[in-house]
Amino acid sequence: MITRRDFATAGAAAALLAGSGSLGRLAAQQKLTQDKLLAFEPVGQVTLLHFTDIHAQLSPLYFREPSVNLGVGAVKGLPPHITGAALLKKYGLKPGSAEAYALSNVDFARLAASYGRLGGIDRMATAVEAIRAERPGRTLLLDGGDTWQGDYVSLKTRGGSMVEAMNALGVDVMTAHWEFTYGTDRVQEIVEDELKFPFLAGNVRDTEWNEGVFESTQYFERGGLNIAVIGQAFPFTPIANPRHLIENWSFGIREKEIRKTVAAARKKADLVVLLSHNGFDVDRKLASRVDGIDVILTGHTHDALPEAVQVRDTLLVASGSHGKYLSRLDLDVKNRKVAGFRYRLIPLFSDAIAPDPKMKALLDRLRAPHRAVTEKVIGRTDTLLYRRGNFNGTFDDLICNALLEERDAEISLSPGFRWGASLLPGQDISMNDVYNQTAITYPAAYRIKFTGAFLKTVLEDVADNIFNPDPYYQQGGDMVRVGGLNYDIDVGRKIGHRISNMTLMRNGEAIDPAREYTVSGWASVNPDTKGPPIWEVVAGYIGRKKIITQPARGKIRVSGV
Ligand SMILES: [Zn+2]
Q1: What is the 97 CA–ligand 1 centroid distance (Å)?
Q2: Residue extents of the structural domains in the chain
Q3: d(CA 53, ligand 1 centre) in Å
Q4: Cα of 160 to ligand 1 centre, how many Å?
Q5: pTM value?
Q6: Residue 263 scores a pLDDT above 60
Q7: Other residues' Cβ atoms within 10 Å of the Cβ of residue 504
């Protein structure tokens, strides 16, 4: 039986870390120690360690969690659609505490100055090794995907740097999404020749023969249990990313096939785990409809939840993103059922956890050939730069302004990606920081004419991908970011009716459906897109401005919440 008491662990651990918020950096740091962060009373036979959506962030970073993450329909007001002060209240986290800093946007810049960065693959390695030493033969390390993409070095090595790092970390199994943007040939080359562990994606099929391209399931013996891990790649990859990069592969949630795969796994396994890149709401719906999955390790939507969410007999874990956290889920399995568990989302405070020397040496070796590019400082920011949130973040505003000015456009569009490190006020901006927001394989910054009517269609389509009340139609990500344009959105309405009051920012004029506007954007899924790479556009803009002052935009009016 899973009881409410099992959920109390995270709260107890958070209390250990509570600080006063007015602490100086040193005092804040002293409260955080590796032993306290990793303290955990083991339960049962097996420990699942999970991270996801690391987006090639191998060094400690600042990453501000969202202030706005709206849930619609049945999930309105449910985790992960609780942010900021409401999230702190929901989980009993003290404002100003270390966990409050890690998990929310509240007072982010000030707390970041006290508590420092999170993550770093060398810190992750230390945590993983410590837990493996404590639970020999009982741990399984699972990577939920969006691992190979997100920085300059991974882009230049076409995922190679990340594959080396993950091999060294001793990952047991992974699934994928952005991995596919390196194209079918490169993905197959890595899976066949470079990766030292299985790449599972049961929902990817060959369009010619309708056969699975990758294995769906892998069995592991741990702690005397036979554990089935089923891999589910991002179902909407050919829509959210360019189809031409993965022409001969088809994707989808494929609920019927999952049901079959789970039933087959149940015949031999004591424990069935879905390693998923569906996104949290999709997985919540899946858990309500498919029997026999004990645990879903969720991914894609970057949610960091300090407690597991239970849906019928399935536990859902949300392990955050960017290497900020390592999830530890201990399971006590009796008669092929989960009889008890303990869960903790471990925040990897990088000043408190000692870097693993071997991983640090590997990281230095991977980075060294690229330092001349990545370490070049091009400017400084006076204000907090972040991306995450349903609507424009300040880093998006910076990118949108760069597109407007450098490409001489009236309106700019920037994709609602959820990845990208934050920068604190006063920080230098390096080329590495620019690539951390832009490093994709289809970076052309286009400049074209859109009619007002077409612009509205674009906003409506994206809004429906995010706010459709049926999670099986949600593709994750956030609303497309806009520059030079204001609009109102009612998230509770249907497609075609959410967006209204579109106006041109520079003069307040209503957008004319028949008029053509000069629009600049990037990350088009169209293979014929022309233009300079977005990082050049953004770097040019920052280099010209030298000092960036980018306050929160606050012009998009949201209703229907
Ligand atoms: Zn993803």
Answers
A1: 29
A2: 4-363, 375-559
A3: 7
A4: 19
A5: 0.94
A6: yes
A7: 18
